[in-house]
Design goal:
four-stranded antiparallel β-sheet; 31% helix; Rossmann fold; alpha/beta; 228 residues; 6 helices
Length: 228
């Protein structure tokens, strides 16, 4: 099953290359799906002899990009991003998403908002009627207990994200993550506003950003293109 999913992700990654043009600045999300796109992008660049630079959202993807030999663009070029390619944790019928399983939600959201075009790659099991996963919330460590209490007031059940040996997980911005269960989320934009209204919250893993194109991978190997 894992091998099959990887093959489908590779197919999505290769199809998404149709959005890549010469001299583009491409923002890269994080996670396994994006790492596969990095490999596909490198091959595409070599085969077509084009120039492309990338801005990774995390050190994880930056290392993948560097090892592939991709050109890393400086962060001051973020306002000029042409294309962002990313995966997700879950997406609902209105194309709201939950992201942040890898902890790069803040930087991913910045890249998406800055980009001219946003492309998402997702297997069919990520599509649901209503969001129902825990929401990653990046918070200031100083405000951890306060924010936890505030999240409970709006119906959340927060849990500090920890590493395998029990150490707190820290984002690349030096913050912590509270993975918060809100049950079935029927109104993601409203919940997101309530979360971000709490002092000390840096960003929420509920994404209501514009999406231009989705590549949906089916278990039979077919790739469906969706324009939200």
């Amino acid at each position: 099953m894992v091998k099959l999913k990887a093959e489908i992700i590779d197919k999505m990654a290769n199809e998404a290359l149709e959005n890549v043009k010469d001299n583009m600045i491409i923002g890269l999300g994080s996670g396994f799906t994006v790492s596969r796109f990095v490999n596909a992008l490198k091959n595409f660049i070599d085969e077509n002899q084009i120039k492309v630079s990338v801005i990774p959202s995390s050190l994880q993807i930056q290392i993948f990009a560097e090892r592939a030999g991709l050109k890393i663009a400086p962060s001051n070029l973020i306002p000029f991003i042409d294309l962002v390619v990313d995966g997700l944790d879950q997406i609902d019928k209105r194309f709201n998403m939950i992201k942040g399983g890898g902890g790069a939600l803040l930087r991913e959201k910045i890249l998406m908002r800055a980009s001219k075009k946003v492309v998402i790659l997702a297997n069919e099991d990520k599509f649901v009627e209503n969001l129902n996963r825990k929401v990653p919330i990046e918070v200031l460590p100083f405000a951890r207990d306060f924010i936890s209490k505030e999240l409970e007031k709006i119906g959340g059940k927060p849990e500090l994200r920890v590493m395998e040996k029990g150490y707190p997980f820290f984002t690349e911005n030096g913050n912590i993550i509270l993975d918060t269960d809100f049950g079935i989320i029927e109104n993601p934009p409203l919940i997101s506003v309530k979360i971000k209204d709490i002092p000390g919250v840096i960003e929420t893993g509920i994404f209501t950003e514009r999406i231009n194109l989705i590549y949906k991978g089916h278990k039979d190997g077919t790739i469906e293109k969706i324009i939200p």
